[in-house]
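Obj.: predict assembly geometry.
Materials: sequence records (below).
Method: joint structure prediction, all chains together.
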Amino acid sequence: MAIAPALIGLDWGTSNLRAYLIGDNGAILDRLEAPSGVMNWGDRGPAAAMESLVGCWLDAHASLPVIAAGMIGSRQGWREAPYVDCPADAAGLAARMVSVEFRGNRRLHIVPGLKCHGDDGVPDVMRGEETQVVGGMTCEAADQQWIVLPGTHSKWVEVGDGRIQRFASFMTGELYDILGKHSILCRLMEGEGFDGQAFESGVRRATTAGGLLRQIFSARTLPLLNELLNASVASYLSGLLIGAEIEGASQWLGISGGTEARVTVLAGPMLASRYVCALTIKGITASVGPTDAAALGLLRIGRIGHLL
Amino acid sequence: MAIAPALIGLDWGTSNLRAYLIGDNGAILDRLEAPSGVMNWGDRGPAAAMESLVGCWLDAHASLPVIAAGMIGSRQGWREAPYVDCPADAAGLAARMVSVEFRGNRRLHIVPGLKCHGDDGVPDVMRGEETQVVGGMTCEAADQQWIVLPGTHSKWVEVGDGRIQRFASFMTGELYDILGKHSILCRLMEGEGFDGQAFESGVRRATTAGGLLRQIFSARTLPLLNELLNASVASYLSGLLIGAEIEGASQWLGISGGTEARVTVLAGPMLASRYVCALTIKGITASVGPTDAAALGLLRIGRIGHLL
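Observations (raw C-alpha cells):
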C-alpha cells in the first residue's frame, strides 16, 4: 500500500530551494530542487519561484500543509520570522511560525531561526539548521547530545533535555573556499582529489603551537620545500580548518575526547566522512545523522504545531 | 659637511623595488621606489628594471657597492641565493651572498633568505625580512629579543646571542585582505576608518573560547544584531586577526606578558601603532624599531662581508 503524503516541506536557503513531499512516517516520497534561493529569485519573487518548482504538488495535494525553513524567514526572505532565543525546542519553534498566503486561501508556514548569546557575549544566529537539528535529535534525549552541521558556516549545537541549549558558528567552509580561490595557496593547489594522509596530518597539526594563522601558512611552506605534494595541499588545508573547528568547538562546548562524548554529524557523505574521521582522530565518538534531517524536522515541527 | 654615500641598497620584493642611497653612518641620503618587483618587471628583465630606477646613482657613484635583499634572490628572481638555515647571523648571511654582473664589470650582491624548522616539524622561510631584522637588532644583544614584521605574511623572529634563532610566519595580512574582499563580511564592512574601541574589543575577543573560526564569524553576527557599527567591522576584524597572531606567536615563542618581554615592531606607522596597541593589551612591552631597517641591515651585512 502506498504511503499517503502528509506535508510539503521546503528547505529554502540563500542559494537553493529544496522541496520534499513527505509521508506521514517521515519517508521522502518525492524531492525537487531549484537554484531559487532568497538571493536568486530575482524579479519574479518568492511565490512564482515556489509555484515553478512545486506547483504540480500544490495542484495534486490541495489540502496538504506547506512549511518552509531557512533564509526564507529572514528580512530578505518572503516574510520575516523573528529569531527565537535559546534554549528552544520544537514546540517553541512551532509556536513562533509566521505565515504568508498564496493561491488566495492557502498558507505557507515559516519556521523561525534561532538566536543565542555565548557566555562571552558573542551573539550567534541560524536559519534552517534549527529545523535540521530537530530532525536529527535522538528521541530519547534526556541525555546531552552535540550536533554538528558542517558547511560554509558550520554550526555546533548542544542539545539537552530535548531542547537546543546553545550553538556556535564557525567560518570553516567559507574560509576554505576563499583561501583556495583568492590566496597565495591557490597557485600551489593542484586539484581537489582527497589525500587521507594529508588530511589527517592537517587535523593533527591544527592544534600545535602557533595557532591557525601560522598553520595555514604551513600549507604554503610545506609544498615549497617539497614536504607536501601540490596535489595534496587542498586535503591538508581541509584537515587544518576542520581540525581547528573541532578544537574550537570542543573547547567552547566542553566536549572532551575519550569520555562518552557523542557527536552527530548532519551532512552529505563527503563532508560527513571527513568530520567523522577528524573527530575520531581527536578521540571523540561520532556518528552520521539522517540524510534528510531538514524534512524530518519540518514534519516534526508541523505535527507539534498541529498543522497536520 | 655632506655625508659621503657608502652603499646602494635595494629592497627588492615581489611587487616593488625600493632603493636607498646610504651614507657610511646609516643615514638615508636619497630614496627611490618603483613597482618593479619580481612579478612585475615583465619582458624587460631585472637589469633594465634596476637601470631604470637607479641608473643615475650607478652613473654618479661608479665605485659604490650594490646589495639587494628580498625575492630578487628567489628562484623567480634574478639569481637564486639558496636559503640559509637558522640559527644565522649577519656574517653568515654575508658569507652566503651570491652575485650577478651588470654593466660588464659591476656586481649586484644578493643576500640569501632564511629557512627554519619549528620543533613541530613545520618549515618556514623568509626573504628580505632577515635583512630588516639585522637592521632592527639592538646591538648589545646578548639578551633575547623578539622582532615582529607585520604584513601580508607577518614574521615573528627570535633573536639571541646576536643571531636569528628561529622564526614563524602568520597569514594575518592576507587573511584580512581576502576576508574583506571576498567573504560574506565584505557586504557588512563600511570603510576602513579606524575605530580604536572596536579594534581593542577584537584583540580581547581573539583569545576567548571557540577559536579564530568562530571569532571571525562574530564579525558578521555583531553588526547583524546591531551590536557593532558597520563602519567598525574592519577595525574589529583587524583586532581579531592581530590578536590571534600575537596569541599564537607568544605561545610558539614562549613570550609571556608582564615579564621583561621586549618586542620590537618593524613596520610603517599605521601597522606599528596597531601592533603596539595590541601587544600592550596583552601585557607585552613593545617598541617601534627603525623605519629604514632594510637599509640599515644591507649596510651592516655589506660591512661584515667587506664589500665596503
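Conclusions so far: The mean pLDDT of chain B is 94.
To do: check interface contacts against the pulldown list.
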